[in-house]
Amino acid sequence: MSEYQYPDKDDKLTAALINNEYDGLSWQKSEEKVMSVAVAAVSGLSTGRHHRTLLDVGCGIGRMFGVFAEHVGRIDALEPDRDRADKAHSQGRRIEERTGTKISVINGTIGSIAKDTKYDVVLSSHVIQHLGSRQAEELVRAMSDRLCTGGLLILTTTYACDGQERFYSESWDGKVRKSVRITPEDFERVYRDGTDLPVRMFAEETITKMAETASLRLVAFRPFHGKTDGQRTEHEHQPRDAFYLFVKEQGNKSVKEVGR
C-alpha cells in the first residue's frame, strides 16, 4: 500500500482549470474530442473487445474508466494516493455494473505490475507532467515494457505549444489557484518536497524522444484545451494540453498476457 499523497487534495486546482471555457468548447468536450481518436484506435485492435486489456497508470479517481470500459474487457488501474484509489474503486464498481468490464484498482505505482505482464493498451492521463525528469523517462519506459507488440500507449500531458518548456509550482491560496513559474532546478525540488503541485509544460519533441527510446512510434498527436484544438500553434498560452497515441514496435518474447 502506498503512502503517497497527491498535492492537489480534493482536486481544487484541477477544478479551477476545468471550469474555464475555451472558444465555445468546454474543458470536457475538448477532451472528449481527442479521446475519440483513442477510442477508435482501441476499437480497431485485432483483439476482440472482451479479450482486450487496459492498464490505467495514475488513474486518479477513475475519471477515464467510463471512456474505455465499453471497448475493453478488463481494466487494471494504478493510483498511489490511497484516498484517490478508494474513490477510483467506487467508480470502478459503478462502471463495472453498467458495462460488464472487470475493473481492478491497485493502490500503488507501475512497479506493482510485473514486467512480463503485457497489456493491449496502456493509458496515462495527465500524470507525467507532475514527475521529475528522471522519473518521467522511467515511467515511459515502464509503460512500454508492459505493452504487447502492436499495443497502444495513450498519453496526455500539459503542452508547451511554442516548443519552449516551462515549469510551474501550483498551490491553492485561500480561494484562488496560485501558479508560479519556476526554474527546472526548482521544479525538481518541488517534486521531491511533495507539498505543492509541480507542472511541466512539455515540448512535443521531448515526449516523442522519450517514446522513441522506449520502442514507441507516434501515430497521432492532437493539442487540446485551447482555441486551436487539434492544431499546432506558436501562441504561448493556448492550447494547454496535448494528446499522444503511440504503438509499441518491439515486444518481449516472455509474455504473460492479462485476461487471456
Helix and strand topology:
Layout: H1 12-18, E1 21-22, E2 25-26, H2 27-43, E3 53-57, H3 65-68, E4 74-78, H4 82-99, E5 102-106, E6 117-125, H5 133-145, E7 147-158, E8 166-173, E9 176-182, H6 184-193, E10 197-201, H7 204-213, E11 216-224, E12 241-248, E13 256-257
Parallel strand pairs: 3-4, 3-6, 4-5, 6-7, 6-13
Antiparallel strand pairs: 1-2, 7-12, 8-9, 8-10, 11-12
Brief description of this entry?
The protein is of the alpha/beta class. 30% of the residues lie in helices and 30% in strands. The strands form three sheets. Strands 3, 4, 5, 6, 7, 11, 12 and 13 form an eight-stranded mixed sheet that branches.
Explain the overall architecture.
Helix content is 30%, strand content 30%. It is α/β, with parallel strands linked by helices and 260 residues long. It has a single domain, classed as Vaccinia Virus protein VP39 (Rossmann fold, 3-Layer(aba) Sandwich). Strands 3, 4, 5, 6, 7, 11, 12 and 13 form an 8-stranded mixed β-sheet that branches. It has a 3-stranded antiparallel β-sheet with strand order 9-8-10. A hairpin with a 2-residue loop joins strand 1 (21-22) and strand 2. The two termini are 27 Å apart. Mean pLDDT is 88; it is low at 251-260.
